[in-house]
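pinned: reference chain
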Amino acid sequence: MIMSRRSDDIPSALAVRPASELPCDVFDALRPALLERLIALRGGDGDAGGAPGAVARAQLEALLCHMGDFLRTGDDRPYCAFLARWMAAVVGDGAPPTALFSSLRTLCEEAVELAETGGDELALAVARLHLASARILVEVLAREHRRTLRLSAEL
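pinned: its C-alpha cells
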C-alpha cells in the first residue's frame, strides 16, 4: 500500500534548500515525514510483524538513521551489521523472515517516493540505497542460511 504524495507531507526544509546540500542532508530532513508515513502504513499493513508501536517506532527510527549514515559515508559495513541486528529483532518479534523483504521494500519505496520531492540527486541516491539494502539483506540472509546449515551438519 503506497500512500499518495500530498504537499503537506513534504517538510518545509525542502522548500528552500541550498544547492550545495548533500542528498544525505536532505534525507535527514525528510526522515520525520518518512517515519510518520511508515508508522501510518504499519497500522494498515502490519509489516513490522506485530511489534508494539513504541518498539516498531524505535526500530524504524534506527533503520532510517543507519540509512542516512550509509548515504553520507557510502560504507556498507556498519549498515550491513545493523541490518543483521534489525532482521533478528523483527523475526524475534514474531514476523516471518519473508516479512523482512516486504518491510524493507515498503520502507524503500516510501523513501524513494518522498525523495522525489527533494530533487533528482536525492531520488537517485535513495534509489541506490534501496538497491544496496536489498543486496545487503540477501547477503545477510545467505550468511545466516550457511551458518544454520553448518550447525545442523555438526549435530
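why pinned: Residues 1-19, 44-49 have pLDDT under 50 and may be disordered. DSSP finds five helices and no strands in the chain.
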